[in-house]
Amino acid sequence: MNNSTLCVFSLVAAVSTASCGYAAPYQTSGPALSKEGVQITIAGEQCYVNRSTEEYPTTTNDDELHVGVNLQVKNESNHVAVLSLDGFQLAADSKTDDVVMHPQESGSLSLAPGETKLVSLDFERQTQLGCHHSLALDPQHAVAIEGTPVNLASIHFLPAH
Q1: How far is 92 from 100, CA to CA, in rounded Å?
Q2: 42: helix, coil or strand?
Q3: What is the pLDDT of residues 17-69, one digit of tens each?
Q4: Which of 5, 58, 119, 141 is surrounded by the most beta carbons within 10 Å?
Q5: CATH code, residues 21-158
Q6: Residue 116 near residue 77, CB atoms below 8 Å
Q7: Where are the domains of the chain?
Q8: What count of other Cβ atoms lies within 10 Å of the Cβ of residue 87?
Q9: How many CB atoms lie within 10 A of CB 127?
């Protein structure tokens, strides 16, 4: 094997290993961009449901929905942006389903001007929703610059299946 073949093989292996079951959303509304220059994009997602194994369930809607999202966050502003992980919400993208999920992660990350970071968030909740439902990731309370909240629209997506 020559060096160029080895380099290509190594790159393909690294990308395949790094994906770990995450896929690009089947459909997405695209990145959320603030007027200050902060951009959040869903770079990958993973969705599955743990079904109840009870033969005669005592409760309904006890299936557990798991959604993991990989976000690419860019700070193109001239100031440090602070990302609060617990400021994100994931909701059903429908008026009939009133389900809101909060990430398991908490804490905050700082992004210097011009910096880009990848962030992983995991959401889970008992619900009758599944991976075939359209979802909305709301970053409304997740980003601040100099203590002032940054206005970002929700990112609507349909998980890949």
Answers
A1: 7
A2: strand
A3: 344 567 777 788 999 999 999 999 999 999 998 866 666 655 555 678 999 99
A4: 119
A5: 2.60.40.10
A6: no
A7: 21-158
A8: 19
A9: 17
